[in-house]
Structure of DUF1618 domain-containing protein:
Amino acid sequence: MAAGNPRLPNFILLDAATRISDLRNGTATAWALTTAGLTIQVSLVVAAPPRLSHFCVCCPGRDATAFADAPRVVCSTGDHALIRAGFTTGDSPQHFIYRARGPDGRPSLDLIPDLIDYYSRQEILSLPLGFVSSRDHLVIAALSYGPTDLQYYLHTLSSEPRSTWSKKLLLVELPHGLSKKPFVIDHSKVIALGGGLLGWIDLWEGILICDVLDPGMAPLRLVPMPKLLPSNRQLCDQQSLARAVRDVTFSRGYIRCVELEELVELRVRTVPPLPDPSDMDELQDSECTIDPPQEDGEEYVTVGWRLITWYRALTWNCWRKGIMVHSDELGTVSLPQLGGGGACGLKLPLKDLRVAAPILCSDGDAVYLASALHERDPPAWIVAVDTRRKSVEELMPYSAKGLYLYDPTYIPYVLTEYLNDKADGAQVQTQNACHHTPRNFDGSEKKRQRLSHTEYEV
């Protein structure tokens, strides 16, 4: 980051697609060892949202052929990001945890041993993991639901040497008024709730909250999601569309939820009456054909959209309404130029854009939306909406061709204050810095190396 730039954002939109590049930065680079003994290097390139941030990944001293394909970010919890990488050594894909602030205050990268094998043995289908930092070690947590015994299980792994996966049966405490029948959470996201608390989120059904550091202290608690807005109720049987309309985050002691709803009107299509030949003095040959039968009809037409936010403290038994924003309140926008030209300079009411996949900023009132001109188009812009001011803050080209509007590739990621403490709005670079030894969960090490780092622009 060059001198004079503003402080780094505490919240970013992280592209799930990484870049294979040997980019090193003194405040954002970390290393680990693969199972084959290769060093893998990961650097975070930060951009203020709605621009996308991304990871640069490489095996120092080797070219891109070391990877079977480009590594990807699978999920994030707080400032922990799970990166999956496949190598040409023939091993199974391996998973690494990147932390913006590791145990020694610097970024860290850790290999999770036997993750795929353990998931296979335990018949765990959903990959999203939660991460909790406890003193000088990290605890990884997964949640599973037994289809035969209809029970929830917590799976944990500590980063302490020689640790192995453990499995614990959990009891679920349902809120008053909910049925005692099995309540299945098909979670797609995990959020950190402070201390040892993690929340596994099913955007349709609810949030299962558990203290993973001491799961025996209390049962698994269920927080039901807010009731769906009217136009979204028909979508709730399609789990793949949940992200298209909802997001949940945690900040400032509150769980916060945002929901996007397309607004539709039922319009009656009327057909004008056919002319009566007896009223005409002359019939042209072209008018003598038989008119096809026509019928009146009804159709639903999209006329805009709205956003609504909800919030609740961990101890509450209700959601409270936050802010509601209607697309009519956001006025007209000018669409920035895409890479290939396209809609350069086009101005239109924001309500005429198709928007989806809201992401709620964890430390403010901004909501980020994927947008396109038409529903079937790939997402072309990311729109930043300030819900409190009811204004469009920024609209940035995204142009992810071949991708789905309702499930874009980026995910939320929370940076700690560490990077800002180091950057402090000034130049970020370290020349000939000596960094910690790459260390994996199994305790293996790589000989300490002296590495030179270069400056980069955020």
